[in-house]
Amino acid sequence: MNIIKFPDAEKINNAVAEDRPLIAAIESDGTTAVVCPAEELPDHRILLESCGFFGEYADSFFRIRFNSNSADWEFDCPPHYNDIPDLSARLSGYYSDGLRTIPEFLVMFGYFSKLKIQNAPLKYGNSNGGIFMLLYNSLSHKKEEFIPNEAGRVSMYTCGPTVYHFAHIGNLRSYIMEDVLEKYLRFTGLDVKRVMNITDVGHLTSDGDTGDDKMLKGAKREHKTVMEIAKFYTDAFFADCAKLSIKTPDVVVPATTYIDEFIRVISSLMDKGYAYEAGGNIYFDTSKLDKYYVFGDFNEEDLEVGVREGVEADGNKKNKADFVLWFTKSKFDDQELKWDSPWGVGYPGWHIECSCISMKNLGEYLDLHCGGIDNAFPHHTNEIAQSEAYLGHKWCNYWFHVHHLNTTNGKMSKSKGEFLTVSLLEEKGYDPLVYRYFCLLSHYRKSLVFSWENLDNAVVTFNKLIAKIAPLTQEKSGEIDKAEYDRLMNGFTSALDNDLNTSLALTAVYDVLKSSANAATKLALIAEFDKVLGLDLIKKAEDKASQSAGNTADIPSEVLELVEQRKAARKDKNFALADELRDKIAALGYEVKETRQGTEINKL
Ligand SMILES: [Zn+2]
């Protein structure tokens, strides 16, 4: 029996997704292997015994982990494996291409090339014929099956940008991962309606309603009006999104266009006793709720986060966690945007806008709310408080949070270190889609470390991927092999069905390339995958292929003829003749070499 056993496939996949090491044990004759998360089985003997292996059968083990920063596998081999020539080069060379599943890793290991993988890809389903997807829900801290309120339809809300400056690429990571989620939901056949706000009023530098007004700060910095600033940076945001293949949501609402709606909902909260007036402002009374800290992993002390020293606590608040719904007594004398309200001339707080814009466009029951993890508290916590107080029932079922993009110095921010924008990436010569690819290499629930070096690694693997697809675009003939198509498609959907595992979804692209399917089947699959991945794979591969063809056109026919003769000689294993022909080609000023992508001809 040639089998790899997985004691627990989900545990293995989670460990890979979270960069935790695994241990693989291999039977001495190389026919059977087991894989376990290392932390569960720190002792090799326990590992072997727990999997039904005993010393006399299993004499080899090694520790492996995928390092998402370097996009490479790291592994420790038992000492006697050091005798295997070029083992390290073979593994790291191959895996720098982005292949990363454990089965592939083991099969690639030459000694186990005959292994058969005995475990079906992860696949979850429900009996209702609904969508088969597990999504981590920040409310329950668990992966849950995603079931929309209405069969076949999804209402999805995204917190939009505060348009007082360019978005940095850390903010954009969230929008990229949300875009993948939206596209995948559509890919599975769901009808998605997605709504996003644009914050052009009310957002202070601390999310807890203290500090400066962000829009006012931007206007002062650039000697413009608040509305000019809002228009400029809204356009800049969508221009960045377009470059990153991020689809514009179906409905986009600037907060300043919904003032009447905010006043209506705040009035209702006042009537219901959930809000109070103090010092001229209107506050939400968090003590009226059974449970305010709904995400469970925040508390009062977190309210201090982001509040700079020297900023006075708001003495009007009855409870520390209360938040502003409407500012009438503005501390900003030069506040440009003000509206009349039942409580006097003023402007709305930040949190109320998302609740109102969502409820107005997506109704009382929201399926999915997205945002960066730093929005979970206090912003999303406040959204839930006021929406559910207003509605009198549960509002949103699933909360999807994307984790931080860090630099090597910590969390990325506009005020710290280099201000990393899409424009800066372009100035430095990076294709913005390589940044999207870089984000897809990691799971959205893990912090991702950005460095120029990491991005350069992504450039290399992305270019290699395009180079592998390129030749396929030249041989489009053949019919799609339905059985192969379904099998390979299953690998892709299984990855995304398991909490949007984008790195495994990229692996599915390599699976297609490695498969024995014909070019038509491979191209059709990659084109389908790219509807979700958004990497422009086919177009880039076509460009690459026509570039290569163009290069060949410049090579003298005499050289090309010799290259063909040499190919034939190599096929006949007449290496002496092949070498002779290579020298002749060199004499004409060209170098010919065989690469994984095929024959390469370069001018000397
Ligand atoms: Zn929001």
How would you portray this structure in words?
The chain has 604 residues and is α/β, with parallel strands linked by helices. The protein has 4 domains: 3-117, no CATH class; 152-402, Rossmann fold; 422-544, Four Helix Bundle (Hemerythrin (Met), subunit A); 555-603. Helices cover 40% and strands 18% of the residues. β2 (22-27) and β3 (32-37) form a beta hairpin. The longest helix is centred in the first third of the chain and has 19 residues, at 169-187. It is elongated and about 95 Å long. Bound molecules: zinc ion.
Cα radius of gyration in angstroms: 28 Å
CATH topology of the largest domain: Rossmann fold
Tell the overall outline: elongated
**Ends: how far apart?**
51 Å
CATH class of the largest domain: Alpha Beta
What's the rounded overall pLDDT mean?
Answer: 79
State the strand order across the main sheet. 5-4-2-3-1-6
Instruction: Name the beta content range.
Output: 15-25%
CATH superfamily of the largest domain: HUPs
* Total domain units: 4
Can you name the CATH architecture of the largest domain?
A: 3-Layer(aba) Sandwich
- Please outline the major beta sheet: 6 strands, mixed
How would you classify the helix and strand content by structural class? alpha/beta
The helical percent reads: 25-40%
Ligands in the structure? Answer: zinc ion
Helix count, per DSSP?
A: 19
Low-pLDDT residue spans: 1-6, 27-32, 41-61, 77-131, 305-311
How many beta-strand segments? 22
